[in-house]
Amino acid sequence: MEATNSLVSFSKIYKYSKPESSHFQDLLAVEAPLQIRLEFEKNKEWHKKDLLVTMRSPGNDFDLALGFLFAEGIIESDRDILLMRYCQQVKPEEKGNVLIVKFVEGFEIDLKKLGRNFYTNSSCGVCGKTAIEAVKCKNHVLPINPEWQLSPETILRLPEGLLSSQTAFKYTGGLHAAALYDQYGDLLLLREDIGRHNALDKLIGACLKGNIDLSNEKIVLLSGRVSYEMAQKAINAGIPVLLAFGPPTQLSVDLAKEKQMTLIGFLKEESFNVYSGEKRIKIVGKKIV
Known about the structure:
This protein has helices at residues 61-71, 111-114, 152-156, 158-165, 167-172, 196-209, 228-236, 250-259; strands at residues 8-17, 20-29, 32-42, 45-56, 81-86, 98-103, 119-121, 125-127, 176-181, 187-193, 219-222, 241-244, 262-265, 273-276. Helix 1 crosses helix 6 (196-209), helix 6 runs parallel beside helix 7 (228-236) and helix 7 (228-236) runs parallel beside helix 8 (250-259). Helix content is 23%, strand content 31%. The mean pLDDT is 83. It is of the alpha+beta class. The strands form four sheets. The chain has a six-stranded mixed beta sheet. A four-stranded mixed beta sheet has the order 4-3-6-5, covered by helices on one side. A two-stranded antiparallel sheet has the order 1-2. It has two domains: 32-135, no CATH class; 152-280, Cytidine Deaminase, domain 2, CATH 3.40.140.
């Protein structure tokens, strides 16, 4: 059973504000380490390997692990996993923070991918990969359906909808979000986390678990910027349209163009920038350069 969601906590603080000051209770975003431990069969023997330590907001940890393993190409679907559970043989302070992922018998795991020595934190994403080759995106080019185009009006109404749906963000201001929408701009799924990468992993994992096809006329909106890794995760999951409130990096734009993913940044209530994949955007009477 997955641990209870605990994105926020109360803290007593002292606030200074002219002309007077006071004490009161404030809500803070929760951050705690999560270790992912793998169990797999090789040569008719079961092996264990610590894969990942990530700083995350507790809650939806199973989605996070599933999405991360899929986005990194370690698994192809949730059917590769026999079970997930929290390790009980830990120190009291580690309870609910060590997650065991056991693969199905006969699952062939790529040990080279496990040799990357993953470590993530809430701001930088995955660090310590042993070679540049390890971060290259090997997925195929995303197909473009000429009969499906998004209207600018649909895109422009997404920011207000996301902010109104981010319950924990309203009270703390300290959480990122990854949101899934259908072709009409209706919210289907939302995940929040202290880390941008974790929020997207949680969303991808939830979609895998719920048998939601991300490649079928779906839109994903991110609350932060788009790094190469964020674009890579989206492409690996088959997401055709990726939007963000913040800017993309040059490398993420190059990757999006190569894989034909529609990448939009600086999304506001009245404007947005299209960096790649403009064929999926319906612009009447104007050409996107």
